[in-house]
Amino acid sequence: MIRARGRRLPAARAYGVAAAFLVAATLVSALVGAADLNPAATIAALLDKIPFVHLPSSLDQLDRAVLFQIRLPRIVLGALVGGLLAVAGAGYQGVFRNPLVDSGMLGASAGAGLGATLAIVYLSQLGPAAVPVAAFAGSLAGVAIAYLSGAVGGSGTATLLLAGVAVGLFLTAVQTYIMQRSAQDLQQIYSWLLGSLSGATWQQAAEILPYAAVSVAIVLLHGRHLDVLSVGDEEARALGVHPRRVRLIVVAACALAAASAVAVSGLIGFVGIVVPHVVRRLAGPSYRLVLPLSLLVGAGFLVLADALARTVVSPAELPIGVVTALVGSPVFVWILRSTSAVRT
Amino acid sequence: MSALAIQDLSVELDHVPVLHAVSCAVSSGGWLALIGPNGAGKTTLLRAVAGLVPHRGTIHINQKDLGALRGRARARLIAYVPQIPVLPPDMTVQDYVLLGRTPYLGYLGAPSRLDRAQAADACDRLDMARFAGRRLGSLSGGERQRAVLARALAQSPEVLLLDEPTSLLDIGHQQQVLELVDDLRRGRGVTVVATLHDLTQASQYAGNLVLLMDGKVEAAGDPATVLTEELIARVYAARVTVGTDPGGHPVVTPVREPPPAPCA
C-alpha cells in the first residue's frame, strides 16, 4: 500500500505517460503488418499529415495506400473504440462505486449481442450495414430497459446493477434461442460476438465520431460529480449534489459511448474494466483524472491489442476480444500484485 | 435570536411515524445536544434538518425557511457529519476536504484558488495540514474524524450537524474532537447540533439538551434541568446517580445494584 502511494504520479506526468503510450501504440501498429513499410518513411508520412508540418517521405503509392487506407483507419477506429470502452467502464465504476463494473454492464453487451444477432439472422437482405445499427440500438435499449426496471425497484445502485444482470441474462437467453434456430448464421454471429476491427474504414470512424464526442464530453464533465458520489448518496446529497440525476446523466452518456464502440467493433471485453484500474494505480482515484486518462490509455491499449490480433497468426487474424483477454489478464494480475489491494 | 428553529417536525420512515411534532431551537453560536435512548429519533431529526428525509413542519436557519431552499443553497448553510462517514480509502485528505466546497461550485465548475484556500484553511484549523497528501485509508480513528470535520468546516456552514461524533473514539480522542468542535463554535460562530450518547459529555459541552423518547421531546433545557436521576431512570430504564464536576456540570454515573447475597 505504501508502494502504491509512492507510485502515484502528479497529474501532468500521468497525462504525459498516457499520451506517450498512445503515440507509441500508434507507431507500433502503423509499422507492423503484412506489408513491410520502411519505419523512417512511415513516420515521415504520418508527421507530414500534421498541419504546418511538411516532410518528404519515400513511401511509394502502394505503401501509402496500405498506410492511409488500411492501417490508419484501423488504428483510429481502434483508438476510438478503446477510449470509449475505457471511459464508459470508468464512468460506470464511478456511478456504481463498484470496481467490478465494466462497459458491458446494465444489459449493454447483451442488448448489442441480441441486436446484432437479429440483424444477421432476419435482416440479411439489408446487407452488412444493418448489423452495426442493430447492435447500437440493441445496446442502448438494453441499458434503458435495465435502468427503468432498476429505478422502479428502488433508488439504490445495487438494485440497478442487479436489474442489469437480470436484463442481460434475459436478452442473452433470447439471443441463444435465436442462434439455436439458425445454425447457418452461427459462424457470422460468433465472429461478431468476439469482436474485430478487421473491416475498419474511415467511414466507420466518421460515423461514430459524433456520438463518441458527445458522450465522452458529457462523461468527462462529470468527473467532479463522481468524486462527490464516492462518499455515498447520503453525504453527496448533504453536499448539494443530486445523486440520481448525476447517475442518470452519466449512465446515459456511458451507454452511448459503449454502444458506439460496440456498433463498429462487436463485443470487446476487458478494456472497460482493466484500463480504469491501471489508471488508478498510476494517478490515484479522482475521476477528474481517471476519466481522461482512461480515454488515452484505453485508446493505446486497444491499438496495441489490435496490432497483436492481426500479426500473431498472420495472415489470419485473432479476434481482438481474445487478444485483450489473453494478454490483458496476466498483465492486469501482475499490476494488481505489484501494487496493492483492489479498490475503487 | 435562534440560529436554528424547528417547529412541529414530523417524520415517517416506511410509513412508520418516527418523529411526532418535535419543536426545538438553538441560538446562534450555541451547542444543542440531542440525547435519548436508541431508536428515540435523534439521527432522524438530524437527517431531517439536513434535508435527507421528507418531513412535515418547518425548519428555519437564521430566518430562512429550509423548505424553500434547493440542495446546493441548503448545503451552504448546513454541514452534516453522519455517525459513520464514507471515506474512500485511496482519496487524499486534501481532495476529501475539498469536497466540502461542492455547494459553492457551479454545475460544470471546478474548485477555484479561493476554494482550495478555504479547504487548506479548514485542514489547518483541525491540525490536518501535515496529512494533506495522506490517503484516508491510512489515517487512525481520531485523524479520520478530524478529516471529516475539516470537510464539514470547508463547507463554511452556519449550522454543523454531528451524529455521534465520538462513538468510535477512545476517551482522549473523544475529548479532543469535542474540544475542536467547541473551538469552531466559539471561533467561527458555528451553531452545533450533535447527538451524543454520553450524557456527561453532553452536559459538559452543550448549553442546551433535548431529550427525545419515542420520537417526542421528553425534556429540554439546560443540562441541570434535563439530567435528573428520575428522568434518566424513566427514559433510559437505567440506574444512575447525578453528581457535579468541578466546572459545575452535571455528571451522570451508572450505578450497579449489589448482586443478591449468596444463600447462607
Describe this structure in words.
- The complex is a heterodimer of chains A (344) and B (264).
- By secondary structure, chain A is an all-alpha fold.
- Chain A has one domain (2-338): ABC transporter involved in vitamin B12 uptake, BtuC (Orthogonal Bundle), CATH 1.10.3470.
- Chain A has 15 helices and no strands.
- Chain A has helices at 2-7, 11-31, 39-48, 61-96, 108-122, 130-153, 157-181, 186-193, 202-221, 223-229, 233-238, 243-265, 271-283, 287-311, 320-338.
- In chain A, helix 4 (61-96) crosses helix 13 (271-283), helix 5 (108-122) packs antiparallel against helix 8 and helix 13 packs across helix 14 (287-311).
- The longest helix of chain A has 36 residues, at 61-96.
- Chain B has a domain at 87-155.
- In chain B, the strands form 3 sheets. Chain B has a 6-stranded mixed β-sheet with strand order 6-7-8-3-9-10, with helices on both faces.
- In chain B, strand 7 (159-163), helix 6 (171-188) and strand 8 (191-195) form a beta-alpha-beta unit.
- The A-B interface holds A 1, 4-5, 221, 224, 227-228, 230-232, 234-235, 237-242, 280, 284-286, 288, 343-344 and B 50-52, 70-76, 78-80, 82, 85-92, 95-96, 99-100, 102-103, 105, 108, 110, 135, 137-138, 155.
Give keywords:
heterodimer; A: 344 residues; mainly alpha; ABC transporter involved in vitamin B12 uptake, BtuC; 75% helix; globular; disordered N terminus; B: 264 residues; alpha/beta; 6-stranded mixed sheet; 4-stranded antiparallel sheet; 9 helices; 32% helix; 28% strand
What is this structure, in a nutshell?
Chain A is built from 15 helices and no strands. Chain A has 344 residues and is mainly alpha-helical.
Order of helices and strands of chain B: EEEHEEHEHHHEHEHEEHHEE
The shape of chain B is: globular
Helix tally of chain B equals 9
User: Going by CATH, what is the homologous superfamily of chain A?
Assistant: ABC transporter involved in vitamin B12 uptake, BtuC
Largest sheet of chain B: 6 strands, mixed
Question: Order of strands across the biggest sheet of chain B?
Answer: 6-7-8-3-9-10
